[in-house]
Structure formats: C-alpha cells, structure tokens
Amino acid sequence: MTSGGVKKPDFHQDVLVTGLTEMGNMLVRFLASVMVARGLGAEGRGVYALALAAPGLLLGFTNIGLGEATTVLIGKGKYPRERVIASMNCLVLLIAVLGFAVYFGLSPLVMKALKHNMPADVYALAFCVFPLTLYWGGNASAALGLSMVKQVSWGRLLNNSVFLALVTVLYLRGAGIKAVLAAFIAALLTENVYLFGRVRRAAAVGLRWDPEMIREQAVLGWHVFWGGLFLQVTRRLDIFLLNYFAGPGPLGVYVVAYSVAEFILTVPGIYSRAAFSSAAVSSGEDAFRVSNAAVRQTLFLMAGLAVFLGVIMRVFISKVYGVEFLPAVLPALLLLPGVVLFGFGGLLGTIFTGYARPRELMRSAAVSCALTVALDLLLIPRYGAVGAAAASAAAYAAGALWILAAYLKFSRARASEVLLVGTEDFLAYRDRVRDFFKGGKT
After folding, report:
1. Which domain holds residue 45?
2. Residue 3, in any domain of the structure
3. Local structure of 207: helix, strand or coil
4. Cα(407)–Cα(302) distance, rounded to whole angstroms?
C-alpha cells in the first residue's frame, strides 16, 4: 500500500491483462475501421475524420492537465481521493460549458476554414464527442490513481465492441456519416457509464468547487496543458491542411494510411497505463526499473510490428480496404518509422507525467509541433498525403529524440537499459503465465 492507501500496482500483471484487452481492442478497431471506410468511401471517410478532428482540436486547447493531475494527486495520497475527484468533476463541467460556447461561437469561421466540406448538422452532432471525452479522461485518470489499470483497459474494449456492433448494423443498412458518428458517441457514453461505476465503488463521487485543490491541479496541469496542445496540433494539423489543399477524398485515403500505421500504437497502449500508474504511486530505484522495462519492451515490440506491416502493406490495404485506397500504401510506409517513434516518445512523456514532471513532455511536444507546422506548410501543398506522412514522420522523430535525452538524464540510466531488451524482460511474464495456469496468484 502507498501512503494514501492506494494499492501499489502489479506492473507485470497489469501489462499481461492490458495486453490481452489491447489485442482485442486492435482487432475490434480494425474491423470497425474497415466497415467505416468501405461503407462511407474515401470522401465520406474524410468527412468523418473532420467530424472527429473538430472537437479533438478543441480538446487540445482545453486540456489543462486535469486528468494527469488527478491520477498523481490520488496516487500520492496527498489529499483525500473524494476531494480530488469532486474538484475534477466540477472543472470538467465548467470546461464543457465553456467549450460549448467556443465550439458553436466559432462555427462560421471553422466551417469556412474547412471549405464547407463538413455538413453543419454533422458539425453540431460532433460536439457531443467533446464533453464525453472530457469526462472519460476524468474517470479514467481517477481509476488509474486508484490502480484500476485493468478496469480502464476493459472500458476501452467495451467502447470499441459497442462501436463495432453498431457500425456493423449501419454498414448492412447503408447508413451515412451522421449515423456512424452517432454510433461513436453512443459507444463513448457506454464506456463512461462503466468507468463511473468502477470509480464509485472505490470512492465517493461528488461535485465541489475547491480553490485549493484547483491550485494543486493547476501546478501540475499547466505543463500538461501545453504539451497536450502541442500534441493536438502535431496530430491534427495535417488533417485540416490536407482537406484545405486537396479535399476530403485524398484526406480519406490519408486517414486509412494513418489508421493502418497506428496499429503500432496498440503496443504503447498496453504499457502506458501500467507505467503511468506505477510512476504515480511509486518512487525511487524500483520505479525507474519498471519504467525502463516498459520503454525497452515497447520499443522492441513496436519495431517488430512495423517491419511486419511494411512487408504486407500493399496486399493488406488492397484486399481489406479495397483498390480505392491503394494510394494510401506509400504514405503508410512513410508513417511506420514515425509512428514507432511517436509511440516511444509518448510513453516516455506519460512516464514523466507520472513522476510529476510534465514539462519534459511539453518541451518534446513543442519540438514536434514546430517541425510539423513548418514541414506541413512546405510539403502538403506540393505532395499531398505523401508530404503529410513525411512531415509527420520527421516531426515525431525529433520529439522522440528530445525526450529520450531528457529521460536518460533524469533516470541516470544507460541507453542500453532503456533501448535494448534482454532475457529478463520475458522471464517475469513467463512466470506469471505459468502461475496462472497452475492456479497460483498473479
């Protein structure tokens, strides 16, 4: 137990359980993405991407690091968990109201910037993603602070499974963009209900305006805000610029390329919650040992998956998504090494935040963001989706190298401890699996 009464997480058990659920998530997300792409076509898929990108960009501007601060404050036990959660809920409600005013107040400018490629009713419906994602972030962060890593993973699987079931029905009926977006919102709502129930079992859930708590959350959250903002620009700018210069059809092709390359991010998804929760509730040499193991195992698995995807890319896209999306092959191949480095840097940033040092993530994200803006403006007008992929890969690499240097300095670890896997990385998992099948305690 930690000083705050939160049970110390079992890293290897959390990784095993999260790994199984993330593999299920990857399969479910893949099937859903194929149905969405085939059902909507390249242009419709591009419009759907814009519908999710609009509230996503707003989330970047309103992410004040509330979720990360909640996890750390609960995990370290400095304040009663009920007080932290009540303050978080109050701030989530306030941000949602302010976000509503900004989202619809700026809608004429946004629609003009999008060249009216997204229908107004789709834009309005897409707002629902904003408050639901905000509240999911709060619930998930509280759960991680309470060492409920597995429950957060199960919630993600529930979300994706509900979405797959709904889009399967919609695909068979030939439904359009609004129906697919409504299915996305319904699945996100389902996950919120599940996580709320899990958190409520462990702590009272209230609503409280708490200036002292808000100050504590702001101290940690300020750097997380800037890091999140830079990351949102890094990941969303190419979508808006590609739509502006080439239209929704090429954007739909690029989104498929990115979706295939993003299979790699399943791997850091397996480790990030366990590593973050461990860093938030642990300290000292043991915490660094867990962090180093998480980083090198993640890098090894991502690199292997990237090689595999590179070999099968052309056949995979043509057979699964259809020949309409074959132009996505080259952008996807360019994105693979960049996505590996993005996942690597993102995991390091998550670990830094768990150690209450989010400024390192902010600095790394600023490097990526600056390079993204420059290269997107240079390459997208001339090379379209291929230029967008090349710009993203270069920006991700720069940010990853920056934060790796910062982590090596902070942890005082050798580069080999962070980058190279060894036999010991697999023995602990072998023992846990053996114990499980023997009926032992994991």
Report:
1. 11-424
2. no
3. coil
4. 19
